[in-house]
Amino acid sequence: MNRPQIDGREMSYSEILRVIGRYMDRHHLGEARVLETADSFILQGIILLGERTGERETYQLTAEDIVDLRTDATAQRGKLMS
């Protein structure tokens, strides 16, 4: 996959995995599996809370999704620091 870019700089895998980890926390996922394909990251995990606890869920995160999630995380940090 062509890694997501922010301001013309390719994101490192550590940045991408940090974004995916935050996504997992927000969606209450555990027992994760992350696969990189030609055009996205596939995230699979077990739902840990709610009506669907114990069910396996699969998400496809494109480069655009990763950038959007990182932008959201950066905005949230700014609100918390204010």
Concise synopsis of the structure shown:
Helix content is 40%, strand content 33%. The chain is an alpha+beta fold and 82 residues long.
Number of domains: 1
Category from helices, strands and their pairing: alpha+beta
Q: Provide the low-confidence segments as ranges.
A: none
Shape: globular
Q: Would you count the extended β strands for me? A: 5
Q: Give, in order, the helices and strands.
A: EEHEEEH
Helix content: 40-55%
Largest sheet: 3 strands, antiparallel
Query: So how many helices?
Result: 2
Fraction in beta strands: 25-35%
First-residue to last-residue Cα separation: 36 Å
Radius of gyration, in angstroms, nearest whole number:
14 Å
- Report the average pLDDT across residues: 90
Strand order of the largest sheet: 3-4-5
Supply database-style keywords.
82 residues; three-stranded antiparallel beta sheet; 5 strands; 2 helices; alpha+beta; globular
What does this structure look like?
With 82 residues, this protein is α+β, with helices and mostly antiparallel strands. The chain has one domain (5-81). Helix content is 40%, strand content 33%. The strands form 2 sheets. Strands 3-4-5 form a 3-stranded antiparallel β-sheet. The protein has a two-stranded antiparallel ribbon with strand order 1-2. A hairpin with an 8-residue loop joins strand 4 and strand 5 (56-62). Helix 1 crosses helix 2. It is globular, with a radius of gyration of 14 Å. The termini are far apart. The model has no long low-confidence stretch (mean pLDDT 90).
